[in-house]
Amino acid sequence: MELPFRQPASASRFRSNQTYAVSCMALAFTLVSAAGLEVYAGGLGWKTIKGEVAIDSRMEDWKRGRYSLLKKVCHDHKDGHCNNVNPGTNFLIIGDSHAPDVLTSFFVAAPQYNYILNSTGGCPPLAASDFAILKPGHPDREKCIALNKQRSDPSYLKQFDVIAINVLYEWYRPEHLARYLSVLRDATRARIFLFGGFISLNRDCGLVALSGGLSRCFEAENIKSYRPFEDELENIAKRYDVTFISKSEIFCNRKQLSDCHTIISGVPATADKHHLTFEFAREMGLWIQKRFGRNYELRHTSPH
């Protein structure tokens, strides 16, 4: 594990990279000499001499891996975990397809809580006045509207001690979030965590890496967005008494993308275009635990 994240580039990291490169070269030479059939492709997968790229199972494993804890916590339990509130501390996670990332993070930080997921792909939290941004062609428009009505219902929200929001910021904008937080704050005094965005890519990391290694995924020409609306989101969080968590603060030495850790122990930050891999979500959980402790500071009181 390449920790701590705050360490600047060092001679030891350079030596580590040198060792890795030499190892890969030696491995490629051995395989080509022994079989004359395959060469190592960019530290990621195997390419035949004929030019046919073999299926890279690791990239697919990373994509599936982000759901591993979701499956363990939500689907393998018989008590309705992730669906029903239980005695004790109930933790609601609101979001789109990025919600499972913070489920992983918070479960790593505090596994003793009961986690409830209120999420579906392409469905960020919206006030009723913003339902119109869900166009008729949205594949889950009606489901998303129903979820957002629930997300604004005081009788539903009063069941939760802690709430976290994690979404992709592209067509969903800070002004949409602000209107939802206004509704949410009127309904509950639960502690609320809001996550900023991190990195979004133009092309799927798996496709980019095949032509040049994992580091190519995070070169400037493949970056679609980095820390989108971060300052604005942080100001909105302060306005509504929400705890803001900056992913760039966790994974970067400074605010510049060039100072970010985008690969940990050979695993990229994302195996697609923007969802965190399990390894990065787990590291975010360890950071949360260190910053806030295993129990957090709960403030569950009546809003009125």
Features:
304 residues; alpha/beta; five-stranded parallel sheet; 11 helices; 11 strands; globular; disordered N terminus
* Separation, N- and C-terminal Cα atoms: 47 Å
Radius of gyration: 21 Å
| Topology, number of strands | 11
Q: Could you tell me the mean pLDDT? A: 80
What does this structure look like?
The protein is an alpha/beta fold. Helices cover 39% and strands 14% of the residues. The chain is built from eleven helices and eleven strands. The strands form four sheets. The chain has a five-stranded parallel beta sheet with strand order 4-3-5-6-9, with helices on both faces. It is globular, with a radius of gyration of 21 Å. It starts with 10 loop residues before the first helix and ends in a 12-residue tail after the last helix. The model is unreliable at 1-55 and 299-304 (pLDDT under 50).
Ordered list of secondary-structure elements with their pairings:
Blueprint: H1 11-35, E1 38-41, E2 45-48, H2 57-65, H3 68-75, E3 90-95, H4 99-109, E4 114-119, H5 141-151, H6 154-157, E5 162-166, H7 174-187, E6 191-195, E7 199-201, H8 205-210, E8 223-226, H9 230-239, E9 243-245, H10 247-251, E10 263-264, E11 267-268, H11 278-292
Parallel strand pairs: 3-4, 3-5, 5-6, 6-9
Antiparallel strand pairs: 1-2, 7-8, 10-11
Task: Summarize it.
This protein is an alpha/beta fold.
